[in-house]
């Protein structure tokens, strides 16, 4: 976002506006943290702000300040449509294509609002008048922190904002261990702690509230892990029946794929999870080094994301999906062995 865009957007925000903030479907910690962080910031300037998520999100994110104000499109559809129809300004956070919000997409396409994109994923669509897109960033939450600073408003970062942004940065960096974590990220985190982010409490809320059924589901996932040594790859499968037998709740499989990547010598990990309500398989990919799972997901699974973290889907059954995956790997054998 250049200086002219910042000046123009600042003029728009100089007087109270009807604002909608939207994250992607199945929002994660970065999506919820960034939308609520921006929500609290804009509320300080007396804007009429609605946060609308396409659907629900995990319980371990529902402690965040302002979470009870979030509108869920799939269960509060009429209210959400009204907010979108009335909006003068729509911020889309942590995604860059209307395809990432499913049923909300057509209503965004019809909107006459001015769009602002804040996102760190690759290959953004060209729908936003104001686009802050930076794939080098650790998280959208870090970008919201910088966005606030673009307006010389660092002093406006309250403890509520700091807690939301800290949570998103922490989760999207794998607790600060992914390569996208830079020295700047750590300086941002330090400032957020100074401004009131309770880092130990946030970690406890996100990671230390697991149910016994989730731990049993993790055991099932690890038991299903398959290692493909010649490709330095592992994959995990979870069927509908397995999810049901362990009382699956949204967010329970978060982070499971990383266990595969933790194995010595493994460069590429995938998890295949049967969707409970629709006939498709949700896929998450993780990698180390220069193997781009973003390119892999875009080429074969109608997905995408980051170089080392991406997602996709398969419309085949589990057996055919895993067979196809192994077959595709042969095309990447040299790269995975390098």
CATH superfamily of the largest domain: inorganic pyrophosphatase (n-terminal core)
Strand order of the largest sheet: 3-2-1-4-5-6
What is the H/E string?
A: HEHEEHEHEEHHHHHEEHHEEHEEHH
Give the C-level CATH assignment of the largest domain: Alpha Beta
What do the pLDDT scores average to? Answer: 95
Mind describing the biggest β-sheet? 6 strands, parallel
**SSE class:** alpha/beta
Indicate the proportion of strand residues.
15-25%
Provide the domain count: 2
N- and C-termini, Cα separation: 37 Å
Are there runs of 5+ residues with pLDDT below 50, and where? none
Q: Kindly provide the radius of gyration, computed on alpha-carbon positions and rounded to a whole number of angstroms.
A: 20 Å
The number of helical segments is: 14
Q: Could you estimate the helical fraction of the residues in percent?
A: 40-55%
CATH architecture classification name of the largest domain: Alpha-Beta Complex
Task: Look up the CATH topology of the largest domain.
Answer: inorganic pyrophosphatase (n-terminal core)
Q: State the total count of DSSP E strands.
A: 12
Silhouette: globular
């Amino acid at each position: 976002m250049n200086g002219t865009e910042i000046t123009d957007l600042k003029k728009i925000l100089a007087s109270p506006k009807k604002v909608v903030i939207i994250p992607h479907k199945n929002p994660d910690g970065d999506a919820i943290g960034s939308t609520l962080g921006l929500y609290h910031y804009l509320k300080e300037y007396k804007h009429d702000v609605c946060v609308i998520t396409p659907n629900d999100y995990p319980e371990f994110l529902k402690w965040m300040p302002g979470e009870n104000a979030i509108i869920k499109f799939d269960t509060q559809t009429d209210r959400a449509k009204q907010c979108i129809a009335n909006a003068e300004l729509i911020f889309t956070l942590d995604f860059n294509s209307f395809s990432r919000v499913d049923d909300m997409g057509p209503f965004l396409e019809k909107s006459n609002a001015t769009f602002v994109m804040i996102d760190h994923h690759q290959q953004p669509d060209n729908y936003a008048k104001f686009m802050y897109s930076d794939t080098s960033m650790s998280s959208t939450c870090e970008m919201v922190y910088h966005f606030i600073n673009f307006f010389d408003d660092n002093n406006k970062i309250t403890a509520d904002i700091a807690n939301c942004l800290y949570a998103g940065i922490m989760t999207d960096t794998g607790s600060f261990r992914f390569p996208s974590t830079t020295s700047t990220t750590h300086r941002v985190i330090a400032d957020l702690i100074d401004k009131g982010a309770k880092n130990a409490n946030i970690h406890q809320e996100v990671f230390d509230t697991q149910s016994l059924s989730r731990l049993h589901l993790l055991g099932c996932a690890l038991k299903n892990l398959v290692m493909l040594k010649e490709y330095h790859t592992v994959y995990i499968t979870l069927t509908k029946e397995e999810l049901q037998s362990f009382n699956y709740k949204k967010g329970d499989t978060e982070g499971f794929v990383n266990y595969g990547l933790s194995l010595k010598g493994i460069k590429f990990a995938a998890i295949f999870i049967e969707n409970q309500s629709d006939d498709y398989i949700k896929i998450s990919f993780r990698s180390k080094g220069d193997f781009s799972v973003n390119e892999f997901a875009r080429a074969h699974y109608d997905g995408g994301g980051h170089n080392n973290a991406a997602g996709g889907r398969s419309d085949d059954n589990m057996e055919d999906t895993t067979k196809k995956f192994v077959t595709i790997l042969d095309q990447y054998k040299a790269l995975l062995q390098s």
